């Protein structure tokens, strides 16, 4: 029997999407279980109050609770470094490992690993965010040579409300981007119920979709040494791991 693998996931307190989706992704991997720890996040904005939600101190406390379960890896299933700067996630992972002795990754760092490995220079973004948050994400990717100018966003900031956006909305956003010539699309928010739709979009439009709920699970499985080829219907990045 394969060694039991425990994946720890850090979750925004108001997120009601990523936990069930993460569990479903690993459903065909009987040796893998996913465990969650929350910290307070309510609003996605660039105000001082909203940015303070991602202070590493309380995130490390949540990570320590995951360490109590002897998880093999800790992942931050969130996209905050998209607007805070990617170095924020690098610092967070280093601090998690220093505090717990457990390797760490994030949705965005995992996404960036895939972008580099696949030699992607242009990817489109699907997000629920406001104009200023979206611009910060696009600007941060431009700094590392990735063009995200083809994008669609929904001008929303209430994190819990992201879960109520219907899949049909994402279908339309992806179709619009494909019409603009997109070959790679990133669903850049772990509060959107979209990961289950990735395989459909890839097959219908002949594109690659990088969903940030899935990217952190992909990297956690990779770090844990799990063969993810048994995972089907969750898109090419998981199936080809």
Automatic annotation (TrEMBL):
This is Asp/Glu/hydantoin racemase. It comes from Zasmidium cellare. Gene3D superfamilies: 3.40.50.12500. Pfam families: Amdase. InterPro entries: Iso_Racemase_Enz_sf (IPR053714), MaiA/AMDase (IPR026286). Transmembrane segments: none annotated.
